[in-house]
């Protein structure tokens, strides 16, 4: 994680707890794809991001956001972390807040799945429900209003604008990939808040300017890929930098469902729709190569998607 200097007024026991928690974030394993894709001279890997604190890639960004806010004296046990999130970031915030004894308030579209709401409530988060018709953009507007009307009560994390989101990936995800795969030629990942792609891509390009960075987006605004953004029609995150990508490709929700079924059957991977869509995009990239080493990110597994899993008959 990046180096920063702690403010002198920060509770030393809180700083110690933050430091200890860092050992549960990141350092996730790679899965080698051998059945869904196989071609001489081309290797395809997928990083299993659910194998860390709170079960998703968002542990990295959430932890880095907490860490910097605490060290700079903006967040303590007397304030609450506030943000808008319908999914994994919320779970990561709630988990970290629970461990550190810091309250967490989340603005959430009311149609978030029952499983999500139960997980968040069991971790002690306070939920502010927003209109189902306004999605995550509506939840962001509600969080902004709440933060503006109670400036001393909340630290507004604002994952869409917070540089500690992409920096988490710059300092952890990218070096982990490069260390495991020194011959990496292609990095493929989806755009949500864009932290994963922008942070990892930026660092990988610095380490090797020849590496190709391919961002993925859903193929239409009404997609079913949790965590992904259709940037043409959504609020563009403040941390997004379109110059990072060498190429941008689209993935369809049904294509992701097909890969969910196949990944379970042939690779033993129980993927979320988002992870399956990442894999679909990466397979497409790998298929076009004569030689190379491709890696993609699997943000979470199927645990929180029981409705889709039972619809697709995945055990
Ligand atoms: C399941 C899932 N996939 C993909 C993403 C996208 O990652 P990022 O927000 O870093 O762009 C997220 C982010 O919340 C996610 O939860």
UniProtKB/TrEMBL annotation:
<protein>
    <submittedName>
        <fullName>Cysteine synthase B</fullName>
    </submittedName>
</protein>
<feature type="domain" description="Tryptophan synthase beta chain-like PALP">
    <location>
        <begin position="24"/>
        <end position="300"/>
    </location>
</feature>
<dbReference type="GO" id="GO:1901605">
    <property type="term" value="P:alpha-amino acid metabolic process"/>
</dbReference>
<keyword id="KW-0663">Pyridoxal phosphate</keyword>
<dbReference type="Pfam" id="PF00291">
    <property type="entry name" value="PALP"/>
</dbReference>
<dbReference type="InterPro" id="IPR050214">
    <property type="entry name" value="Cys_Synth/Cystath_Beta-Synth"/>
</dbReference>
<dbReference type="InterPro" id="IPR036052">
    <property type="entry name" value="TrpB-like_PALP_sf"/>
</dbReference>
<dbReference type="InterPro" id="IPR001926">
    <property type="entry name" value="TrpB-like_PALP"/>
</dbReference>
């Amino acid at each position: 994680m990046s180096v920063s200097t702690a403010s002198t007024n920060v509770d030393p026991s809180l700083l110690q707890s933050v430091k200890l928690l860092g050992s549960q974030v990141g350092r996730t394993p790679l899965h080698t794809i051998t059945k869904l894709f196989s071609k001489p001279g081309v290797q395809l890997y997928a990083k299993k991001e659910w194998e860390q604190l709170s079960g998703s890639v968002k542990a990295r960004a959430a932890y880095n956001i907490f860490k910097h806010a605490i060290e700079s004296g903006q967040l303590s046990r007397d304030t609450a972390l506030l943000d808008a999130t319908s999914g994994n970031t919320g779970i990561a915030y709630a988990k970290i807040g629970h461990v550190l004894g810091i309250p967490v308030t989340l603005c959430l579209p009311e149609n978030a799945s029952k499983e999500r709401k139960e997980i968040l409530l069991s971790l002690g988060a306070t939920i502010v429900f927003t209109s189902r018709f306004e999605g995550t953009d509506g939840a962001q507007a509600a969080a902004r209003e709440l933060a503006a009307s109670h400036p001393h009560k909340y630290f507004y994390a604002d994952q869409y604008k917070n540089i500690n989101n992409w920096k988490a990936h710059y300092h952890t995800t990218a070096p982990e990939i490069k260390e495991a795969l020194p011959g990496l030629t292609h990095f493929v990942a989806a755009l949500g808040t864009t932290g994963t792609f922008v942070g990892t891509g930026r660092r990988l390009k610095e380490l090797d300017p020849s590496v190709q960075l391919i961002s993925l987006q859903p193929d239409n605004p009404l997609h079913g890929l949790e965590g992904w953004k259709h940037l043409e029609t959504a609020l563009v995150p403040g941390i997004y930098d379109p110059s990072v990508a060498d190429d941008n490709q689209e993935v369809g929700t049904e294509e992701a469902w097909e890969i969910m079924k196949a990944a379970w059957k042939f690779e033993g991977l129980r993927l979320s729709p988002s992870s399956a869509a990442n894999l679909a995009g990466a397979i497409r990239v790998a298929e076009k190569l004569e030689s190379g080493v491709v890696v993609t990110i699997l943000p979470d597994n199927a645990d929180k998607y029981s409705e889709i899993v039972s619809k697709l008959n995945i055990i």
